[in-house]
Specification:
The structure holds two protein chains of two kinds.
Chain A (H helix, E strand, L loop, with lengths): L5 H8 L5
Chain B lengths: L11 H8 L4 H22 L8 H22 L1 H4 L3 H27 L4 E3 L5 E3 H7 L2 H20 L3 H12 L10 H22 L6 H28 L7 H11 L1
Antiparallel strand pairs in B: 1-2
Helix pairs in contact in B: 1-8, 2-3, 3-5, 3-11, 5-7, 5-8, 5-10, 7-10, 8-9
Classes of the chains: A mainly alpha, B mainly alpha.
């Protein structure tokens, strides 16, 4: 299930968004 | 409306929401460029590549629109306050509603009953779409047209659409959030700002706020229908490989 969310997590996590 | 009656300012929060809106032309050119690239890639891979079907085109547009929805959410002050886990839960809950709202709000201003205007500027004739469609898609399109008509009658404006996006994103019904209280308080603030906005810009229409809010469950119902339809198409292998769209479908059904 974790793998399913990988792209969204990447998009939210990238750059300054911590 | 360009300005409210003298003495009644547009609520600051509503102005902030409008300021955070993405530039439609920029989003359009980004998505169009992506689609152009995709079609080029397809035709270079095979000499007799079939042109994208209307459904395939709409899936690609929806997928790319989802990327821009995530970008928009990340730019919101309120959203930034949340941890990624909560951000994901909120987006999993509302991605299809935000997609339907994007579609509906474009249709409201497009003003043509017999065609759909995509963000890319392409127009899809409803007649030809419905001719190939089954009952489910026909019902979906019909439901969409009815909601568009309701909102056209209300003359929904772009500030109200901006508020809708926040009411949808910060849905207080989403469960198991780390920061539930915060999401509820944002929802309250946004609905308060929308109420204030409708009272100051449409003072002759005191029912406006409640009439606007009544449209949200209709939008929700449409988005559930649209998701079911997409799931069915996905399971029968008809949804082109769209990363984010399919990931969202999986996440919600998991």
């Amino acid at each position: 299930k974790k793998k399913d969310n990988a792209l969204l997590r990447y998009l939210l996590d990238k750059d300054d968004n911590t | 409306p360009s300005a409210p009656p003298a003495g009644l300012p547009v609520p600051a929060l509503v102005l902030e929401f409008v300021r955070c809106e993405q530039d439609e032309l920029q989003v359009r050119s980004k998505i169009s460029a992506h689609l152009g690239h995709l079609q080029q890639e397809q035709s270079s891979r095979s000499a007799k590549a079939e042109p994208l079907s209307t459904f395939g085109l709409m899936c690609h547009v929806a997928d790319q629109t989802l990327f821009s929805i995530v970008e928009w959410a990340r730019s919101c002050t309120f959203f930034k306050e949340l941890k990624v886990g909560d951000q994901m839960k909120l987006l999993h809950n509302c991605w299809s509603e935000l997609l339907v709202l994007d579609y509906i709000s474009r249709q409201v201003h497009h003003g043509k009953q017999d065609s759909i205007l995509l963000i890319t500027g392409q127009e899809v004739e409803l007649g030809s779409l419905l001719a190939q469609a089954g009952v489910t898609l026909a019902e979906l399109v019909q439901g969409g047209q009815e909601l568009v008509q309701h909102l056209q009658e209300l003359q929904l404006d772009r500030r109200e659409i901006a508020c809708f996006k926040y009411l949808i994103l910060f849905n207080p019904d989403v469960k198991l959030l780390e920061n539930q209280v915060y999401v509820e308080s944002v929802y309250e603030q946004v609905s308060g700002a929308l109420l204030e906005y409708t009272l100051c810009v449409y003072p002759q229409h005191v029912e406006r706020f409640s009439q606007l809010l009544l449209r949200l469950p209709e939008l929700r119902a449409l988005s559930v229908q649209a998701e079911d339809y997409l799931c069915y198409k996905h399971l029968s292998g008809e949804v082109p490989c769209n990363n984010l769209l399919i990931e969202m479908l999986h996440a919600k059904r998991a």
